[in-house]
């Protein structure tokens, strides 16, 4: 490290040292020499979390080996694997035919160590401000929070790595975590699960492994829809862990049924795109219903949904002055928005 010099680290750096070791390059023109390292360190960031010092190295490294990447599947032979996220079971992976291929249970570090957090916080509040005892209590509380964050982060990396390495095509639902966390009964459990972080990790790890990630439509009722006949169910409480279809008689775990619906949704999106090679538009694709496709190079028509979608930016009826719309055109919207919902500069 600059100024500091050589320091000892806790983690094993064997993989990093192998990347930095000079080896014979197959394309010497890239590095300018026949012997050059496969990677190089750009910069390092030193930070402290709890009672530990962490050094994050930004390394410019080559792509994964071809044997560790998923084979390109342009024919659509391999189906998608849907990943349903929940609280009873953190993540359930299943194919479109209802075959469960993975189930992960979260460690719930915040729920298990909540009493410790409360005791550490009480010790901080009882100590005198500016005293050494208060500083010690603050450090103990910070170490407890860091421990919880490390347990959650380690679990999320394990789940995302296993899913990205074992399945070339993944489909997840577009969860509005910021809206779901407003429920005061489930907010702590949702925050402890880390659904958004799992989706973020799956996005870049699937790209590393050469896979495809489809983000299904937010308004697709994957939990309340039968994966066998497609019949939607009107009422399905959170306590009902088994999905029972009144039409075809299907009895299946509700999380497995939701994951199967997500996989079928992605297959329905991908198959028309694979049959229309003249409509390719590489990169990140967003379909008409809002579903985003990462790694799929075609645009597909919107599949049929099982419940009515709300119309965004709907132009309301102009209000009369008696209804409180004085000086605000387009039904009470601020000046600067057109009737179609497109912001304009003035």
Mean pLDDT: 78
From the spread of the alpha carbons, the general shape counts as flat
Oligomer: single chain
Number of strands: 13
Measured distance between first and last alpha carbons: 52 Å
Order of helices and strands: HEHEEEEEEHHHEHHHEEEHEEH
Question: Stretches where pLDDT falls below 50 for ≥5 residues?
Answer: 276-291, 295-346
- The level of helicity is 25-40%
Largest sheet: 7 strands, mixed
Strand order, largest beta sheet: 7-6-5-8-9-13-12
Count of helical stretches: 10
What does this structure look like?
The chain is an alpha+beta fold. It contains 10 helices and 13 strands. β6 and β7 form a beta hairpin. The termini are far apart. The C terminus is likely disordered.
Task: Please describe the structure with a list of short key phrases separated by commas or semicolons.
two-stranded antiparallel sheet; 33% helix; flat; seven-stranded mixed beta sheet; 346 residues; 13 strands; alpha+beta; 18% strand
Topology at a glance:
Layout: H1 14-20, E1 22-24, H2 28-31, E2 35-37, E3 40-49, E4 52-60, E5 81-85, E6 91-95, E7 100-104, H3 109-112, H4 114-126, H5 132-166, E8 169-173, H6 177-180, H7 187-193, H8 195-208, E9 212-216, E10 242-244, E11 251-253, H9 254-274, E12 284-286, E13 292-294, H10 329-332
Parallel strand pairs: 5-8, 8-9
Antiparallel strand pairs: 1-2, 3-4, 5-6, 6-7, 9-13, 10-11, 12-13
Helix pairs in contact: 4-5, 5-8
């Amino acid at each position: 490290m600059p100024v500091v010099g050589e320091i000892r680290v806790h983690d094993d750096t064997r993989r990093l040292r192998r990347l930095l070791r000079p080896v014979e390059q197959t394309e010497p023109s890239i590095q300018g020499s026949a012997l050059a390292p496969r990677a190089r360190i750009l910069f390092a960031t030193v930070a402290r979390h709890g009672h530990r010092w962490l050094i994050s190295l930004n390394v410019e490294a080559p792509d994964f080996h071809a044997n560790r990447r998923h084979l390109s599947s342009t024919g659509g032979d391999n189906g998608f694997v849907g990943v349903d996220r929940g609280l009873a079971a953190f993540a359930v992976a299943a194919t479109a035919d209802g075959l469960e291929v993975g189930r992960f249970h979260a460690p719930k570090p915040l729920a298990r160590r909540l009493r410790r957090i409360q005791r550490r916080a009480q010790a901080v509040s009882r100590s005198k401000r500016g005293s050494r005892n208060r500083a010690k209590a603050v450090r103990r509380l910070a170490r407890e929070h860091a421990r919880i964050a490390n347990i959650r982060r380690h679990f999320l990396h394990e789940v995302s790595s296993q899913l990205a390495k074992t399945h070339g095509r993944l489909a997840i639902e577009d969860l509005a975590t910021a809206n779901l966390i407003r429920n005061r009964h489930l907010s702590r459990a949702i925050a402890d699960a880390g659904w958004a972080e799992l989706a973020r990790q799956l996005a870049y790890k699937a790209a590393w492994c050469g896979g495809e990630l489809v983000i299904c439509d937010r308004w697709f009722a994957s939990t309340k829809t039968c994966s066998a006949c497609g019949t939607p169910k009107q009422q399905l409480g959170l306590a009902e862990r088994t999905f029972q279809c009144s039409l075809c008689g299907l009895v299946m775990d509700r999380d497995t049924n939701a994951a199967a619906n997500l996989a079928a949704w992605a297959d329905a999106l991908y198959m028309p795109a694979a049959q229309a090679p003249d409509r390719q538009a590489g990169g990140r694709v967003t379909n008409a219903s809002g579903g985003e496709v990462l790694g799929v190079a075609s645009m597909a028509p919107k599949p049929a949904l099982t419940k009515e979608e709300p119309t965004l930016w709907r132009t309301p009826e102009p209000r009369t002055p008696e209804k409180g719309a004085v000086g605000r055109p387009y039904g009470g919207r601020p000046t600067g928005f057109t009737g179609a919902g497109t912001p304009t500069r003035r």
